[in-house]
């Protein structure tokens, strides 16, 4: 086992099949490594002194209680989101709403843009993703994965919009302005980002998002009453 500074050793590795450089994807490689420094990780003792460094705590039991609260809250949020998704999904399945192709195409572009951006952050390309997921080309991916997802999004949006009308749910001008002010505070002094909130289209998008959220909340309420 290598454990001293100055030692050299070889690492036999294999590039991932979806590696962004196609000439290296799936290839075996040997890296010669020289160890310059060895650090040992020492875990701190979980005592009251350590607790004081973690925040406004005086005892370790307070830290453990705080961690438990955070984990419980996280699990509750996850359960709430799954419940919301299930309700919207069930409502969407029962709907016979016609899907405007223009909206579906718009969602397709959004899905491809988001996926491409996320892959780029990982050093991957859309082509490599298609290959690792077993799609022979982009057309097959659109048909089997992207289009069904886009149609589901559009259908859910139409159903919730219709439900909001049925339940007479709306967003007041004050509510919209309050949300805009909140976003502006989040962006601080970023002038370019702040300017977008003067755009009426952005106001409309914010209003629609608020109405959708309020509609989903009402849907949850109607399905949890005893």
Any key phrases for this structure?
single chain; 226 residues; mainly alpha; two-stranded antiparallel sheet; 8 helices; 62% helix
Describe the fold and architecture.
Strands 1-2 form a two-stranded antiparallel ribbon. Helix 3 packs across helix 5 and helix 5 (138-166) crosses helix 8 (200-222). 62% of the residues lie in helices and 6% in strands. The protein is extended, with a radius of gyration of 26 Å. Among the domains are: 1-42, no CATH class; 46-94. The protein has helices at 48-53, 60-94, 101-121, 126-132, 138-166, 173-187, 191-195, 200-222; strands spanning 8-14, 28-34. By secondary structure, the chain is mostly helical. The mean pLDDT is 89. It is built from eight helices and two strands.
């Amino acid at each position: 086992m290598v454990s001293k500074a100055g030692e050299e050793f070889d690492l036999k590795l294999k590039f991932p099949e979806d590696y962004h450089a196609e000439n290296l994807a799936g290839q075996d490689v040997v890296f010669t490594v020289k160890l310059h420094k060895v650090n040992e990780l020492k875990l701190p003792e979980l005592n009251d002194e350590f607790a004081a460094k973690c925040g406004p705590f005086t005892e370790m039991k307070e830290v453990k209680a705080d961690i438990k609260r955070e984990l419980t809250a996280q699990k509750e949020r996850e359960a709430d989101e799954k419940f919301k998704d299930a309700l919207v999904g069930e409502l969407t399945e029962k709907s016979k709403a016609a899907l405007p192709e223009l909206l579906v195409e718009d969602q397709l572009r959004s899905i491809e843009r988001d996926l491409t951006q996320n892959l780029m952050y990982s050093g991957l390309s859309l082509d490599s993703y298609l290959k690792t997921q077993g799609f022979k080309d982009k057309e097959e991916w659109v048909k089997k994965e992207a289009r069904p997802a886009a149609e589901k999004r559009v259908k859910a949006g139409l159903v919730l919009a219709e439900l909001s009308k049925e339940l007479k749910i709306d967003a007041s001008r004050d509510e919209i302005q309050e949300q805009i002010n909140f976003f502006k505070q989040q962006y601080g002094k970023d002038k370019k980002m702040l300017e977008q909130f003067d755009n009426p289209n952005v106001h409309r998008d914010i209003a629609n998002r608020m109405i959708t959220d309020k509609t989903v909340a009402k849907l949850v309420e109607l399905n949890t009453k005893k």
